[in-house]
Design brief:
The complex is a heterodimer of chains A (about 150) and B (about 160).
Chain A lengths: L2 H12 L7 H9 L3 H13 L3 E8 L7 E7 L6 H9 L4 E7 L5 E7 L2 H15 L4 E4 L3 E5 L8
Antiparallel strand pairs in A: 2-4, 2-5, 3-4
Chain B lengths: L3 H10 L9 H9 L3 H13 L3 E8 L8 E7 L6 H9 L4 E6 L10 E7 L2 H15 L4 E12 L9
Antiparallel strand pairs in B: 2-4, 2-5, 3-4
Helix pairs in contact in B: 2-3
Classes of the chains: A alpha+beta (about 150), B alpha+beta (about 160).
C-alpha cells in the first residue's frame, strides 16, 4: 500500500467529513482529485481493507442490551454449539480462545429478557451449565482506530 | 427517544455509504428528506454519543494487525480507576472494560491488545503489566473466528 492510500485510510477512520462532498474535502487534504479518492476507496474495499463506511453505534444508547458471554464447550460439541449460538442475529462476535472457557461471544438484544431467554435456551439445548455472563460494568476505552504505518 | 425518522436513518447508515461525489444527497433522497437534514441528524447522533464513530470500518487483520489478544487482569477494586487510566494510554489497547467476576473467573478488567505480531503483542502486555504493577493476568488469543458481523438495529422480523 502506498503512502497516499495509508494517509487516506488513517483520515477516514475517525474523521469522515460530514458535508455535501466528503470525497472532495479529503482530496484537498491529500492533494489529489475527488475522483482519485473515490477510486482509491473502491480499491481498498475490493481488496478487503475497508469493510464499510458508515456509523458505529452505541447499542445501549439505542435502547439495546449487550453482554459478553463465555461458555465451556466440550471439544466434540464445538460446531453444534456454535451453530446454535450463531443462529441468533444479535450474536455479533464469536471466538474460540485458549482457555477452559473456550467459546466467547457477544450478544445484543432489544431487552434484557431476550438475552436471558437466549442464554437459558442455550443451557437447555446443549446441557452445558458452565456459562458466564460478563456485561460491561464500566467502559474505559473503545476506539477501534488503527494507526497504519509504512 | 428516537423517532421513526431517526430509526429509518440509523437503519440506512448502519449499512454502507455510496461511493459517489454526493453520498449524503443520495441517501437523503432514498429516505425522503433533504441532504442538510440528514447531515444534521448524523451530527446530532455523534454529539449525543448514539454514534460512537462515523467513518470507515477496517478489517484489522488485513491492515496488518495479525495478533489480537483479549488480556484479562485481576485488579483490586480500589486500584481500578488508576490502573485503567494507565492501560488506556497505550495506543495498542483498543478496548478496556470492567466486567463482573465469578467463582472460577477472577479477572475483572478486560483489554483488547492489537499488534502486528504475537511477540510484539506480548511485549506490549509486559510493558502494561509493569506500568501498572499487576502480574496476575491472562492472555487469551483467539484461535478461531466463528462469527464477526456488524449489528443491524431496528430490523423488523
Amino acid at each position: 500500500m502506498n503512502k497516499t492510500n495509508k494517509d487516506l485510510l488513517n483520515l477516514i477512520q475517525s474523521n469522515f467529513p460530514l458535508e455535501s462532498r466528503p470525497f472532495l474535502k479529503l482530496s484537498k487534504e491529500l492533494n489529489i482529485s475527488e475522483v482519485e479518492v473515490i477510486d482509491i476507496i473502491k480499491g481498498l474495499k475490493n481488496s478487503g481493507y475497508i469493510k464499510r463506511i458508515g456509523g458505529i453505534f452505541d447499542s445501549r444508547k439505542l435502547g439495546y442490551c449487550s453482554t459478553l458471554c463465555a461458555i465451556k464447550v466440550p471439544l466434540d460439541k464445538i460446531t453444534e454449539v456454535a451453530t446454535l449460538i450463531n443462529s441468533n442475529k444479535g450474536v455479533t462476535h464469536n471466538y474460540i480462545r485458549d482457555h477452559s472457557y473456550n467459546m466467547w461471544f457477544t450478544v445484543i438484544a432489544p431487552s434484557i429478557e431476550e438475552v436471558k431467554d437466549f442464554l437459558d435456551n442455550i443451557k437447555i439445548k446443549t446441557h452445558i451449565k458452565d456459562i458466564i455472563e460478563l456485561p460491561a460494568v464500566k467502559l474505559f476505552k473503545i476506539s477501534v482506530i488503527f494507526d497504519i504505518k509504512e | 427517544m428516537l423517532s421513526c425518522l431517526d430509526k429509518k436513518i440509523i437503519r440506512r447508515i448502519q449499512e454502507d455509504l455510496p461511493l459517489v461525489p454526493k453520498p449524503y444527497k443520495e441517501i437523503s433522497q432514498e429516505l425522503g428528506i433533504t441532504e442538510k437534514e440528514l447531515i444534521n441528524k448524523i451530527e446530532r447522533f455523534c454529539n449525543r454519543g448514539i454514534i460512537r464513530r462515523f467513518g470507515s470500518i477496517l478489517n484489522h487483520r488485513n491492515v496488518g494487525f495479525m495478533a489480537n489478544a483479549m488480556v484479562v487482569w485481576k485488579v483490586q477494586e480500589e486500584r481500578i480507576k488508576d490502573v485503567s487510566k494507565i492501560m488506556i494510554s497505550f495506543s495498542q489497547v483498543s478496548h478496556c472494560y470492567q466486567r463482573p467476576t465469578f467463582p472460577g473467573w477472577p479477572y475483572n478488567i478486560f483489554t483488547m491488545v492489537h499488534a502486528q505480531t504475537k511477540l510484539e503483542c506480548e511485549n506490549v502486555v509486559k510493558q502494561i503489566s509493569s506500568a501498572v504493577n499487576i502480574y496476575d493476568y491472562n492472555m487469551l488469543y483467539s484461535t478461531a473466528e466463528l462469527k464477526k458481523v456488524s449489528m443491524k438495529y431496528f430490523i423488523e422480523e
